[in-house]
Each structure stands twice: as C-alpha cells, then as structure tokens.
Design a protein that fits this description.
The chain is α/β, with parallel strands linked by helices. It folds into two domains: 10-199, Rossmann fold; 217-234 and 285-477, no CATH class. The protein is 52% helix and 10% strand. It contains 21 helices and ten strands. It has helices at residues 10-17, 44-50, 75-85, 107-114, 129-146, 193-197, 201-212, 214-226, 236-241, 244-256, 260-279, 289-303, 311-332, 347-359, 366-384, 386-394, 396-406, 410-419, 435-444, 456-461, 465-477, and strands at residues 33-37, 59-64, 69-70, 73-74, 90-95, 122-127, 153-157, 169-174, 177-182, 188-192. A hairpin with a 2-residue loop joins strand 3 (69-70) and strand 4. Helix 7 runs antiparallel to helix 10 (244-256), helix 13 (311-332) crosses helix 21 and helix 14 (347-359) packs antiparallel against helix 15 (366-384). The longest helix is centred in the C-terminal third of the chain and has 22 residues, at 311-332. The relative contact order is 0.12. The protein binds zinc ion (ZN). Zinc ion binds at residues 162, 210, 291, 311, 315. Zinc ion is lined by residues 162, 210, 291, 311, 315.
Amino acid sequence: MNLRFDPGSIERFKTEISAIPGYPAGEALPILDMVFESGAIFRLPALLTLAGADPARPLLVVMDDTMMRRAGEELKPLILSLLRQAGWSPEPLVLAPDATGQVHTDFAQIGRVKKRLQPNLAVLSVGSGAVTDIAKHACYVFQQEHGVAPLPFVVYQTANSVSAYTSNMAPTFVDGVKRTLASRYPDVLVCDLETLRDAPYEMTVAGVGDLLAAFGSYADWWLACHLGIDPSYTEFAQTLMGPLDEIFLERAEAIRSRSLDGMADLAKLIALGGLAMSLSHATAPLSGYEHVISHVLDLMAERAHRPLAQHGTQVALATLLTTSAYRVFVNRFEPARVVVAQCFPTESVMKARIETAFQALDPSGQVAAECWSDYRIKLEAWHARRNRFEAVLNDWPQVKNTLEALTRPPELARRILESVESPLHFDQLIPPPTMADVRFAFSHAPLIRRRLTLGDLPLFLGWEPEAWWTQVSGESAR
Ligand SMILES: [Zn+2]
C-alpha cells in the first residue's frame, strides 16, 4: 500500500504534512520517531535513548496484568529482560483492573502512575489504548503540576486497536462520563509488527472499526462548522488520512490474514488517525455522532458495572447507524416545512429533558448534571447562530450535496467490516448491549455533549423520536 503520507519516514512525513492546507501554522510535531517494523522490539533500548531516556536513570514501565504473547514468548517479561540485558533498570508498574475486570482511563489510575513519577525519570507504556492514555496523561499532569520539562515518554503499542497512540488527547472518565482532555504526544512510537500480529484479532478488527467513524464524522464536523457551532473544521484530516474506503477495500485481506504488511498498514493508518485529530486540535475529525453513541453505551455499561465492549467495533456498529441516519435525513428533510421559531427549545426545556433522560441511569442526578453542563454550551451556540440555520434552510440543495459527498454509505462500511470478519451486529459485542440500550444511546447521544452532530437536528426539528429511530434502524438493517 502506498500511503500518500507515510508516518514511517518521519522527517519527510513532517515536511510533507506541514504543507497540507489546514496544518496548524507554526506548530512542529514533537514526535521524534514512529517505527513500524518487524523486530522493532529489539530496538527498544535505542529508541528509548532517542526519546531522551538514559539507562543510568529510572525507567518506569507502565502496563496492565493482561498476558500478551509475541512469537510464542510472553511479551512483557521479554521486554523487561531485553531492557535489563541492555543495561537498563526498568521498574514495572502493573495497573490492576477495576471491579469490571478492565483497566479504564480515570483519575484513580492516572494518579497511580503520577505518584511514581519524578523529574529525571523516563516512562515506557506497554499496552493498548487505556494503558497508553493513562501513562500519557499521568506524564502530562505531572509536567503541568511541577512545571518541569516533559519526561521522555515512549509508547510500545501492543494492538492495532484505537487511535490513542499518537494523539495528544486523553479520553478520560470524569464523573462517569467520557471526556477528552488535553494531554501530550509520545516522543517515540514503537510498532513491533510481530506483537501487533499476535494481539487478539478482535482488537485488530476494532482498529479498523474505529477509523470507519470517518464515514460519518467528517460530515458531522463540517455540519457543526457550517452551522456556526464549531469553527475548527478544515480538510487537513481528510487529506492526511487519504481515501479510507479504497485503502481498506484494498488492504482488508492483508489485515484479515494478519500479515506483517497488513499490520504495518493498519498501524500507520491508526497513527495517522491520532495525528489527524491532534493536529486539527479536535477529536471531531474522527469522532462524530457514532462516538457519542458509543460513549452513551459506555456510560450505561459503567453505571451497571459491566465491562466495556471493544471500543472500535462498537464505534463501527454505531457508524452503520449514523451513515444510515445521514441517508434517511437528507431524503426526509424538507426545509419548506420547517417552522424556524419552533427549532430553538429553551434551556429549561432541554435541562428537564436531560434530567428525565438520565434519571433511571443515575438517580443521584450527577450524570445529568455533567451532561447538562456540556450540552448547554451547544444549546447556547445554537440559539446564537440562528441565522446560520436559516442559511442552511435557504441553501439546502448545496448543503445536501456536501453532506452526501462527505459521508460514505452504510453498505460500504458493512462490506469492509465483513471483509475483515468484524462483528456486524450489536448482539455480537462482548458483552452485548440490548437493542433497547442501543436505541437509548442513539436517541440520547446528542444530550451528553457540546459537540453538534447530525443527531442534534431531529431533536431541534421536533421529529418524532420513534419514527426517526424506526427509519434509521430499518435503513441500517436493509
Ligand atoms: Zn474511537
């Protein structure tokens, strides 16, 4: 596969991407290297040194207690012994799972890592999304609190599962609701292809799924910009990522067969995904309506003390819904029938709606309060930009064309998922949400965040929720 922008050639990559329209002017990407290689594990000592770590100083190795294998050997003991043989003194910090049996990114875990940090230490994270985010954010909070230089931080990616590894943001549970916090980049990203090949295949499939979010999220982001709610939109992310539909159709077999080439390609795409968001200073490029739906499903699981389903696959299944929602919306929406004055619900109406919506999930009202505090920002902006909504009504044929050009059909997403043998239905997630849960998430996703997506419009337009859900789920199941 020839990627237009190859993160595996760091200097050329940095030069080339800085010329893409929308690249943040004057901002230098601080990542020193991204390695996508067979046997990269054996270069770890050299890559730590490149990151500014020193074998004579402490090295904190952050991991969880999941047993991982690489080419028949246990991965974590192998890494520790390779480092010791090379003269390093790695200090392992094993993060214990919470009551759900999983390690989640929250301030309890971040605090555990932060407690172990000191100014002359370096950090190596060995894990997938949550471990990486916890280690990354602990380093970030530490340097902020102590006003010290960033600690050398190397990410050893153990699965092609999410686009966390190259991002300078950390999705973190705050009062039970997932929020994206500003964080830091790694100094070096290490993708050892044998490690990625031997990761549980459902994680690899999830990595594909997380990127398929783009099939709806670019349109959500453009829409939010066009309505005057989120001015951050540029085409940088789309240009950087390239034609994901064509790429995945071409590379599905290499991924499905776990070839090292396929693993390298997916790891690079995932790295581009993290960078697309970080350099756009927003998660919006790859996180739209489908991610908000996924966040509500996570929120429901979290409240019920259930483990979270595989993130990227949950997102992919939500993408089948949201890309169907786009199709239903553009076919059904008739600007001439819109009564503008009725599309601007008051604060008290929406606050009450949020409180009612989340009452059963959290009788204490804490979740509703957290959702309202973020939602009200969107509602205020929606009111303030009423003229932009009116412009969309007048200009609908063009808006419709743009939305159709920015989205990809659900059939294409499903075909890609099929070709990598991904689950295609929510009841195949582990643990599976009920269809009532999925429906709740689809309908209430707009209420939890300030981010405007397609999901907000039926609410503002006063569309009957039952009919909207029936149409979208019917389209998606077609
Ligand atoms: Zn995601």
